[in-house]
Amino acid sequence: MKKDKPKISFTTGPASDVVRSAPAEGQSRAQMKAAPAAGKSTVMPKSHDASKPLGAGATSGLSSSTPKRHSAPLIAQAAPRSMFTPVLAVVSLLTVGLGVAAVFLWQDDNLQAATVPARASEQTKVTAQGVSEPASLDSVTRAATPDLTDLANRDQTGKAAGGSVVANLAAAVQVVMYPAENPAVVLQQTPVAEEAVDLVAEEMQVLRAGILAGDYEIDVIEQNGVGRSSLRFIGAEETGNAAKAVLMQAITEGRITAPKHMWTAEGPVDIDTLMFDLVQTALAADGTVEGADAARDMSRTTFMVSRIQSSKVDGKRHYTVGAGDSLAYISLQFYGKPDAFQRIVDANRKTLQSPEKIQIGQRLIIPS
Amino acid sequence: MIKIFVMFAAVLVVQVGTGVAKADPSLGQASFVFDGETVEITPNSADAVKYTSRFARLTASCDPNCIAPQSAAVGIETVIEPQVLEFLENTVGEGTGLLVDARMPEDRALGFIPGSVNLPHAAMAKREDEGARQPILMALGARSFEDVYNFADAQNLMIYDNGPSQNDAGELIAHLLEVGYPPEKIRYYRGGMQVWSVLALTVQE
């Protein structure tokens, strides 16, 4: 469906730029604020999952409320007044109860992460050394496919530790207090299409200079309860927007093709992340120490202020795709680089055939 | 009428459905699932005197103070026992937080609060190798990239030690803040084992 994207007609460049950048100038900008107060933030992972718009959560809500609505009025007509109250009480208790039970059962099968985080820990046992062994994995979903790139979830013997937070922390304390090898994660880098850079060569000069001078900010803007990050060129907003418009136009007309990981779940190209990637790659490749440092700082800053949230199921990080997400954006938030997306693709082979096929509400494994 | 009734029934069923009647923190009770097992905390422990004298006898660390300050650091809330019990029931029970024992393993071996984890303050101490603390932060839910961390997914922590005569919790909190752990995700239970045992709350060994 989305393979024909270059031909799909959608809002043209300038229009979508206005939409994207308008909140940045308004009052809704959240200045790199950290997560809410500890007490309240405990609810966040749940509500995040529950807000999944097109996912299964919505369906389960429907199935539970439908029976309630029909049965209550029907009974009311059939029963005489005096019997009305007890009969109605029993029946409504039963129907509502079944509805609620259905939701719980349904979630057990499909949404373990969303309902009870503690449940994940039930499947593991902690040994004296604090290294966990997966006890029963018969209830695994697609999510639990063994993942060889998942370095952080391995104990010292290299065995995957499926584990609970408690077991992982105990293992980490062991590793730190009695140091052993701690494998570093190396991120691969792939260049963005050169033709795209040529199209906006002039703008790129200005934007690159701005980044080198440190004139940029990573804004975190609240959208539907989710903090979204975006790069803002201080003093060069117009140049940035002009470059995005030119690129969008070229992509819409099919003159250039955006990489597959730059497509959002809704359809249009994630022009903000594409722009980030173009500027960063140009800096990293300019052969100077300053350029390389500036490129690195872009990653570090974006990573630090990111408010993207995930939940853990069976020791694995899961992220639910939201509106406006591209695989490049998700990769930038979790790994500091738009082009580290291949790790996510590799970890989700069964449910994600191609990077551009991500869907809103889809749950992706994010290898640590 | 029907609507009110159905709503009332729904509320009732939901309460029953979500199971476990909550224990009352103000009565010194807590009941929650921790690491796959149900943990119960009750008042009137028969071993209270044994533990009280054991924790009282530990020499004060006097580093930097012989009596721990009221607040561990700027922006860190100090909590009392009912808050600890509520934190265990709700936050720890939900898997979004950890009750952290900041003492060294030999002190923890004397007894600890059920449902707590041990993160000795020395494990988080600053070292030459900046990356040495990374595995612990990752286990607490932080994400790491090069030498920086992101704490959007990090656990809420409530940190304690032996009690007002010790500063292990203060040390650990200082180390966590130093690496950027958000202060609003950290709370300090100053009473520690000393006050916990005087109140005859359950101690585990």
From TrEMBL, chain A:
The keyword Transmembrane applies. InterPro entries: LysM, LysM_dom_sf. It holds the Pfam family LysM. The chain crosses the membrane at residues 87-106. Residues 1-69 are annotated as: Disordered. Residues 317-366 form the LysM domain. The keyword Membrane applies. Keywords: Membrane, Transmembrane, Transmembrane helix. Residues 53-66 have a biased composition (Low complexity). This is Nucleoid-associated protein YgaU. It comes from Sulfitobacter undariae.
UniProtKB/TrEMBL annotation, chain B:
Residues 1-23 form the signal peptide. It holds the Pfam family Rhodanese. Residues 93-205 form the Rhodanese domain. GO terms for molecular function: transferase activity. InterPro entries: Rhodanese-like_dom, Rhodanese-like_dom_sf. Keywords: Signal, Transferase. This is Rhodanese-related sulfurtransferase.
